[in-house]
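Handout for the seminar on molecular recognition.
Each group receives one record of this type.
Step one: identify the two inputs.
Step two: read the structure output and locate the region that could contact thymidine-5'-diphosphate.
Step three: write two sentences on what you found, then compare them with the reference statements printed after the record.
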Amino acid sequence: MHNSSVYDCTIIELDKHHSDRKGNISVVENRKDIPFDVKRTYYLYDVPGGESRGGHAHKELSQLIIAASGSFTVTLDDGRVKRSFTLNRPYQGLYVVPGIWRTLDDFSSGAVCLVLASHGYDAADYIREYEEFIAYKKEYDTSIGRCAE
Ligand code: TYD
């Protein structure tokens, strides 16, 4: 999506079913808790301290990113504005719309980044070069330039 903004991306609070004896369970149901159907699930784990992941955008893919364990920071960039979210609660998910550059870093030891995705894996859906991403966004809005650091 050429014209998406970081303000289209939000934290979704998931239900937390709590039991003093048995702990917690959180649920994500298609089109009920999230505005898309999940076609693929993957998770990042054993990310060494100091490493970053992501560093790309998707043309069509929507995602819900959850810190299933531990914590990490997701930085979103729409070519105009950057927003950073520290995820550290398993009952919160960051909904990321298509057309957003994202970087994940500051992984805590033992962090598990669970990603629910709207499409199967498709290498053609990725934009992996930042300059290409800016050019893609500029097709819609010619005033877009590189974000200030
Ligand atoms: P990549 O997207 O480069 O990871 P990052 O989150 O750091 O950008 O994916 C790493 C590798 O995993 C790459 O070889 C592609 C592969 N991969 C799949 O085969 N299927 C998937 O669903 C995903 C997300 C990655």
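Reference statements: The chain has one helix and twelve strands. Residues 130-138 form the longest helix (9 residues).
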